[in-house]
Amino acid sequence: AKGEGKNTFSFFDEELNSASRNRIALEQRLRQVLEKNELLVLYQPKISLATGKVTGVEALVRWNSPEFGMVSPLRFIPLAEETRMIIPIGEWVLETACRQQVLWQEQGLSLTMAVNLSSVQFKSPTLIERITAILDKTGMLAEQLELELTESALVEKPNEATWILEQLRSLGCGIAIDDFGTGYSSLAYLKNFPVTVLKIDRTFVRDLAHDSGDRAIAQSVVALANNLDMQTVAEGVEQQEQLAILRELGCAFVQGFIYSRPVPADELPAIVHTITAG
Ligand code: C2E
Ligand code: CA
Ligand code: CA
Ligand code: CA
Question: How far apart (Å, rounded) are the C-alpha atoms in residues 222 and 231?
Protein backbone atom coordinates (compact mmCIF):
# COMPACT_ATOMS: atom_id res chain seq x y z
CA ALA A 1 0.00 0.00 0.00
CA LYS A 2 2.92 2.25 0.79
CA GLY A 3 4.39 1.70 -2.64
CA GLU A 4 1.04 2.42 -4.29
CA GLY A 5 0.70 5.70 -2.44
CA LYS A 6 4.09 6.77 -3.55
CA ASN A 7 3.34 5.94 -7.16
CA THR A 8 0.06 7.83 -7.06
CA PHE A 9 1.81 10.84 -5.61
CA SER A 10 4.51 10.93 -8.24
CA PHE A 11 1.91 10.44 -10.95
CA PHE A 12 0.10 13.62 -9.90
CA ASP A 13 3.40 15.37 -9.46
CA GLU A 14 4.32 14.65 -13.04
CA GLU A 15 0.89 15.72 -14.24
CA LEU A 16 1.33 19.07 -12.51
CA ASN A 17 4.81 19.48 -13.87
CA SER A 18 3.69 18.73 -17.37
CA ALA A 19 0.73 21.14 -17.00
CA SER A 20 2.99 23.98 -15.92
CA ARG A 21 5.54 23.03 -18.58
CA ASN A 22 2.77 23.32 -21.16
CA ARG A 23 1.77 26.65 -19.78
CA ILE A 24 5.30 27.95 -19.92
CA ALA A 25 5.70 26.65 -23.48
CA LEU A 26 2.40 28.27 -24.45
CA GLU A 27 3.42 31.53 -22.81
CA GLN A 28 6.78 31.58 -24.60
CA ARG A 29 5.14 30.93 -27.97
CA LEU A 30 2.45 33.49 -27.24
CA ARG A 31 5.11 36.17 -26.87
CA GLN A 32 6.12 35.55 -30.47
CA VAL A 33 2.73 35.28 -32.18
CA LEU A 34 2.82 38.75 -33.63
CA GLU A 35 6.34 38.66 -35.05
CA LYS A 36 5.65 35.16 -36.40
CA ASN A 37 2.36 36.29 -37.86
CA GLU A 38 0.42 33.36 -36.38
CA LEU A 39 -2.81 35.15 -35.49
CA LEU A 40 -5.81 35.39 -37.74
CA VAL A 41 -9.20 37.01 -37.46
CA LEU A 42 -12.45 35.27 -38.36
CA TYR A 43 -15.72 37.11 -38.90
CA GLN A 44 -19.21 36.03 -37.87
CA PRO A 45 -22.23 37.72 -39.47
CA LYS A 46 -24.83 39.55 -37.41
CA ILE A 47 -28.33 39.45 -38.90
CA SER A 48 -31.21 41.88 -38.47
CA LEU A 49 -34.38 39.94 -37.64
CA ALA A 50 -36.48 42.76 -39.10
CA THR A 51 -34.90 42.64 -42.57
CA GLY A 52 -33.13 39.26 -42.69
CA LYS A 53 -30.02 41.11 -43.85
CA VAL A 54 -26.47 40.93 -42.58
CA THR A 55 -25.79 44.32 -40.98
CA GLY A 56 -22.43 43.61 -39.41
CA VAL A 57 -19.83 41.11 -38.28
CA GLU A 58 -17.98 40.25 -35.08
CA ALA A 59 -14.21 39.81 -35.29
CA LEU A 60 -12.97 36.70 -33.44
CA VAL A 61 -9.27 35.98 -33.10
CA ARG A 62 -7.58 32.59 -33.66
CA TRP A 63 -4.03 31.45 -33.02
CA ASN A 64 -2.75 29.12 -35.71
CA SER A 65 0.28 27.64 -33.97
CA PRO A 66 2.66 25.25 -35.78
CA GLU A 67 3.20 23.42 -32.47
CA PHE A 68 -0.22 23.48 -30.81
CA GLY A 69 -2.50 23.65 -33.82
CA MET A 70 -5.50 26.00 -33.83
CA VAL A 71 -5.58 27.38 -30.28
CA SER A 72 -8.95 28.68 -29.04
CA PRO A 73 -9.12 32.24 -27.72
CA LEU A 74 -10.71 30.74 -24.59
CA ARG A 75 -7.31 29.19 -23.95
CA PHE A 76 -4.89 31.95 -24.88
CA ILE A 77 -6.77 35.19 -24.13
CA PRO A 78 -6.63 34.62 -20.33
CA LEU A 79 -2.89 33.94 -20.62
CA ALA A 80 -2.45 36.99 -22.83
CA GLU A 81 -4.29 39.06 -20.23
CA GLU A 82 -2.09 37.81 -17.37
CA THR A 83 1.06 38.64 -19.31
CA ARG A 84 -0.39 41.88 -20.76
CA MET A 85 0.38 40.50 -24.22
CA ILE A 86 -3.31 41.24 -24.83
CA ILE A 87 -2.39 44.91 -25.36
CA PRO A 88 -0.40 44.39 -28.61
CA ILE A 89 -2.57 41.40 -29.60
CA GLY A 90 -5.79 43.36 -29.08
CA GLU A 91 -4.37 46.26 -31.02
CA TRP A 92 -3.43 43.94 -33.90
CA VAL A 93 -6.94 42.46 -33.96
CA LEU A 94 -8.53 45.92 -33.95
CA GLU A 95 -6.31 47.19 -36.75
CA THR A 96 -6.83 44.04 -38.84
CA ALA A 97 -10.60 44.23 -38.37
CA CYS A 98 -10.75 47.95 -39.20
CA ARG A 99 -8.67 47.45 -42.38
CA GLN A 100 -10.99 44.64 -43.40
CA GLN A 101 -14.08 46.76 -42.77
CA VAL A 102 -12.68 49.51 -45.02
CA LEU A 103 -11.82 46.97 -47.72
CA TRP A 104 -15.37 45.56 -47.70
CA GLN A 105 -16.81 49.07 -47.64
CA GLU A 106 -14.81 49.89 -50.80
CA GLN A 107 -16.28 46.77 -52.41
CA GLY A 108 -19.78 48.01 -51.64
CA LEU A 109 -20.26 45.79 -48.60
CA SER A 110 -21.21 48.08 -45.75
CA LEU A 111 -20.96 46.24 -42.44
CA THR A 112 -20.51 47.31 -38.85
CA MET A 113 -17.45 45.77 -37.22
CA ALA A 114 -17.72 44.49 -33.64
CA VAL A 115 -14.41 43.91 -31.85
CA ASN A 116 -13.93 42.35 -28.41
CA LEU A 117 -12.02 44.48 -25.94
CA SER A 118 -10.39 42.84 -22.93
CA SER A 119 -10.79 44.50 -19.53
CA VAL A 120 -6.99 44.85 -19.53
CA GLN A 121 -7.20 46.93 -22.72
CA PHE A 122 -10.16 48.85 -21.33
CA LYS A 123 -8.16 49.87 -18.25
CA SER A 124 -5.10 50.93 -20.23
CA PRO A 125 -4.58 54.71 -19.90
CA THR A 126 -3.74 54.96 -23.59
CA LEU A 127 -6.88 53.17 -24.86
CA ILE A 128 -8.51 56.22 -26.44
CA GLU A 129 -5.28 57.33 -28.15
CA ARG A 130 -4.69 53.85 -29.54
CA ILE A 131 -8.21 53.51 -30.93
CA THR A 132 -8.11 57.00 -32.42
CA ALA A 133 -4.75 56.22 -34.06
CA ILE A 134 -6.07 52.98 -35.58
CA LEU A 135 -9.20 54.69 -36.92
CA ASP A 136 -7.02 57.42 -38.48
CA LYS A 137 -4.53 54.96 -39.91
CA THR A 138 -7.15 52.68 -41.49
CA GLY A 139 -9.62 55.36 -42.47
CA MET A 140 -12.50 53.51 -40.84
CA LEU A 141 -15.47 55.54 -39.62
CA ALA A 142 -15.86 55.27 -35.84
CA GLU A 143 -19.63 54.96 -36.36
CA GLN A 144 -19.04 51.56 -37.98
CA LEU A 145 -17.07 50.27 -35.01
CA GLU A 146 -18.69 48.54 -32.06
CA LEU A 147 -16.56 47.63 -29.04
CA GLU A 148 -17.68 44.62 -27.01
CA LEU A 149 -16.95 44.69 -23.30
CA THR A 150 -17.91 42.29 -20.54
CA GLU A 151 -19.58 43.44 -17.36
CA SER A 152 -16.45 42.64 -15.35
CA ALA A 153 -14.54 45.37 -17.19
CA LEU A 154 -17.12 47.93 -16.10
CA VAL A 155 -18.23 47.13 -12.57
CA GLU A 156 -14.90 47.33 -10.77
CA LYS A 157 -14.66 51.10 -10.99
CA PRO A 158 -17.98 52.24 -12.40
CA ASN A 159 -17.20 55.95 -12.31
CA GLU A 160 -13.96 55.58 -14.21
CA ALA A 161 -15.65 53.16 -16.59
CA THR A 162 -18.43 55.65 -17.31
CA TRP A 163 -15.87 58.31 -18.15
CA ILE A 164 -13.97 56.04 -20.56
CA LEU A 165 -17.22 54.89 -22.18
CA GLU A 166 -18.24 58.50 -22.67
CA GLN A 167 -14.98 59.22 -24.46
CA LEU A 168 -15.48 56.20 -26.71
CA ARG A 169 -19.02 57.32 -27.43
CA SER A 170 -17.83 60.81 -28.31
CA LEU A 171 -15.43 59.30 -30.82
CA GLY A 172 -18.54 57.78 -32.39
CA CYS A 173 -18.03 54.10 -31.54
CA GLY A 174 -20.89 51.90 -30.40
CA ILE A 175 -20.50 49.96 -27.15
CA ALA A 176 -21.92 46.50 -26.50
CA ILE A 177 -22.06 44.67 -23.20
CA ASP A 178 -21.06 41.11 -24.05
CA ASP A 179 -22.39 38.02 -22.26
CA PHE A 180 -25.00 40.22 -20.63
CA GLY A 181 -26.58 38.70 -17.54
CA THR A 182 -23.71 36.36 -16.69
CA GLY A 183 -21.70 38.88 -14.67
CA TYR A 184 -22.42 41.01 -11.67
CA SER A 185 -23.37 44.35 -13.12
CA SER A 186 -26.09 46.10 -11.23
CA LEU A 187 -28.98 47.57 -13.16
CA ALA A 188 -28.35 50.88 -11.42
CA TYR A 189 -24.94 51.15 -13.11
CA LEU A 190 -26.31 50.12 -16.46
CA LYS A 191 -28.54 53.17 -16.47
CA ASN A 192 -25.47 55.43 -16.28
CA PHE A 193 -23.26 53.57 -18.75
CA PRO A 194 -23.56 55.05 -22.24
CA VAL A 195 -24.01 51.61 -23.78
CA THR A 196 -25.67 51.05 -27.17
CA VAL A 197 -26.09 47.26 -27.31
CA LEU A 198 -26.80 44.37 -24.92
CA LYS A 199 -25.70 40.94 -26.10
CA ILE A 200 -27.84 38.13 -24.72
CA ASP A 201 -25.42 35.43 -23.67
CA ARG A 202 -25.42 32.05 -25.37
CA THR A 203 -26.19 30.28 -22.08
CA PHE A 204 -29.66 31.90 -22.09
CA VAL A 205 -30.24 31.18 -25.78
CA ARG A 206 -29.30 27.50 -25.67
CA ASP A 207 -32.44 26.18 -23.94
CA LEU A 208 -34.76 28.98 -24.97
CA ALA A 209 -37.27 26.56 -26.45
CA HIS A 210 -37.54 24.37 -23.34
CA ASP A 211 -36.61 26.49 -20.33
CA SER A 212 -39.17 29.09 -19.28
CA GLY A 213 -36.61 30.68 -16.95
CA ASP A 214 -34.23 31.34 -19.83
CA ARG A 215 -37.09 32.72 -21.88
CA ALA A 216 -38.01 35.08 -19.01
CA ILE A 217 -34.40 36.28 -18.85
CA ALA A 218 -34.18 36.85 -22.61
CA GLN A 219 -37.50 38.68 -22.52
CA SER A 220 -36.32 40.89 -19.65
CA VAL A 221 -33.07 41.78 -21.41
CA VAL A 222 -34.98 42.81 -24.55
CA ALA A 223 -37.45 44.89 -22.49
CA LEU A 224 -34.64 46.50 -20.50
CA ALA A 225 -32.72 47.34 -23.68
CA ASN A 226 -35.81 48.84 -25.28
CA ASN A 227 -36.50 50.99 -22.27
CA LEU A 228 -32.91 52.19 -22.06
CA ASP A 229 -32.75 52.88 -25.81
CA MET A 230 -30.29 50.09 -26.50
CA GLN A 231 -30.31 47.34 -29.10
CA THR A 232 -30.23 43.60 -28.42
CA VAL A 233 -28.12 40.94 -30.09
CA ALA A 234 -28.70 37.27 -29.23
CA GLU A 235 -25.61 35.10 -29.60
CA GLY A 236 -25.22 31.38 -30.16
CA VAL A 237 -28.45 30.88 -32.12
CA GLU A 238 -28.39 27.38 -33.59
CA GLN A 239 -32.04 26.33 -34.08
CA GLN A 240 -35.13 27.60 -35.89
CA GLU A 241 -37.09 27.34 -32.65
CA GLN A 242 -34.73 29.72 -30.86
CA LEU A 243 -34.94 32.11 -33.79
CA ALA A 244 -38.74 32.11 -33.72
CA ILE A 245 -38.81 32.85 -29.98
CA LEU A 246 -36.24 35.64 -30.29
CA ARG A 247 -38.28 37.20 -33.09
CA GLU A 248 -41.41 36.99 -30.95
CA LEU A 249 -39.60 38.62 -28.03
CA GLY A 250 -38.56 41.52 -30.26
CA CYS A 251 -34.82 40.88 -30.23
CA ALA A 252 -33.32 43.03 -33.02
CA PHE A 253 -30.22 41.07 -34.09
CA VAL A 254 -28.91 37.51 -33.96
CA GLN A 255 -25.60 35.73 -34.42
CA GLY A 256 -25.09 32.00 -34.51
CA PHE A 257 -24.27 28.83 -36.35
CA ILE A 258 -27.81 28.74 -37.75
CA TYR A 259 -26.64 31.48 -40.15
CA SER A 260 -22.89 31.07 -40.13
CA ARG A 261 -19.86 30.09 -38.11
CA PRO A 262 -17.06 32.63 -37.87
CA VAL A 263 -15.27 32.50 -41.26
CA PRO A 264 -12.11 33.89 -42.88
CA ALA A 265 -12.49 37.29 -44.54
CA ASP A 266 -12.39 35.93 -48.10
CA GLU A 267 -15.39 33.65 -47.45
CA LEU A 268 -17.58 36.33 -45.93
CA PRO A 269 -18.98 38.15 -49.03
CA ALA A 270 -20.48 34.92 -50.44
CA ILE A 271 -22.05 34.08 -47.06
CA VAL A 272 -23.52 37.57 -46.75
CA HIS A 273 -24.98 37.14 -50.23
CA THR A 274 -26.50 33.74 -49.42
CA ILE A 275 -28.05 34.91 -46.13
CA THR A 276 -29.45 38.06 -47.69
CA ALA A 277 -30.85 36.14 -50.68
CA GLY A 278 -32.38 33.38 -48.54
P1 C2E B 1 -17.66 35.89 -27.28
O2 C2E B 1 -17.21 37.28 -27.53
O3 C2E B 1 -18.86 35.70 -26.43
O4 C2E B 1 -17.86 35.26 -28.73
C5 C2E B 1 -18.86 34.34 -29.06
C6 C2E B 1 -18.30 32.94 -29.14
O7 C2E B 1 -19.37 32.05 -29.45
C8 C2E B 1 -17.28 32.74 -30.25
O9 C2E B 1 -16.34 31.76 -29.77
C10 C2E B 1 -18.11 32.14 -31.38
O11 C2E B 1 -17.36 31.37 -32.29
C12 C2E B 1 -19.07 31.30 -30.61
N13 C2E B 1 -20.34 31.08 -31.32
C14 C2E B 1 -20.96 31.89 -32.20
N15 C2E B 1 -22.13 31.37 -32.61
C16 C2E B 1 -22.25 30.19 -31.97
C17 C2E B 1 -23.27 29.16 -31.98
O18 C2E B 1 -24.30 29.24 -32.65
N19 C2E B 1 -23.06 28.08 -31.18
C20 C2E B 1 -21.94 27.96 -30.41
N21 C2E B 1 -21.81 26.85 -29.68
N22 C2E B 1 -20.97 28.91 -30.38
C23 C2E B 1 -21.13 30.01 -31.15
P24 C2E B 1 -14.77 31.96 -29.97
O25 C2E B 1 -14.50 32.57 -31.30
O26 C2E B 1 -14.14 30.67 -29.63
O27 C2E B 1 -14.41 33.03 -28.88
C28 C2E B 1 -14.54 32.75 -27.53
C29 C2E B 1 -14.33 33.98 -26.69
O30 C2E B 1 -12.98 34.43 -26.79
C31 C2E B 1 -15.17 35.15 -27.12
O32 C2E B 1 -16.49 35.02 -26.62
C33 C2E B 1 -14.40 36.30 -26.51
O34 C2E B 1 -14.72 36.42 -25.15
C35 C2E B 1 -12.97 35.82 -26.65
N36 C2E B 1 -12.37 36.45 -27.83
C37 C2E B 1 -12.42 36.06 -29.12
N38 C2E B 1 -11.73 36.93 -29.91
C39 C2E B 1 -11.25 37.89 -29.08
C40 C2E B 1 -10.47 39.08 -29.28
O41 C2E B 1 -10.08 39.47 -30.39
N42 C2E B 1 -10.17 39.82 -28.15
C43 C2E B 1 -10.59 39.45 -26.91
N44 C2E B 1 -10.26 40.24 -25.86
N45 C2E B 1 -11.35 38.37 -26.70
C46 C2E B 1 -11.67 37.58 -27.77
CA1 CA C 1 -18.12 39.11 -28.19
CA1 CA D 1 -20.60 36.93 -26.00
CA1 CA E 1 -18.97 34.44 -24.23
Answer: 8
CA distances from 155 to 82, 170, 197, 227, 247 (A): 19, 21, 17, 21, 30
Ligand 1 pocket (Cβ < 6 Å) reads 44, 60-61, 72-74, 77, 90, 93, 116, 118, 178-179, 202, 235-238, 255-257, 262
- Write out pLDDT tens, residues 170-227: 999 999 999 898 877 677 788 889 999 999 999 999 999 999 999 999 999 999 999 9
The reply to whether the predicted model has a pTM over 0.90 is yes
Q: Which ligand is nearest to the CA of 58?
A: 2
> Given pLDDT bands bounded at 50, 70 and 90, which one contains residue 21?
confident
Angle subtended at Cα 277 by Cα 101 and Cα 143, rounded to the nearest 5 degrees: 25
Q: How far, in Å, from the CA of 19 to the mean position of ligand 2?
A: 28
Residues 6+ apart with CB under 8 A from 64: 38, 39, 40, 70, 71
Mutate to test the pocket of ligand 1, among 30, 94, 116 (most ligand atoms within 8 A of CB): 116
Distance of CA 247 from the midpoint of ligand 3 (Å): 19
Interface predicted TM-score of the whole assembly (ipTM), two decimals: 0.97
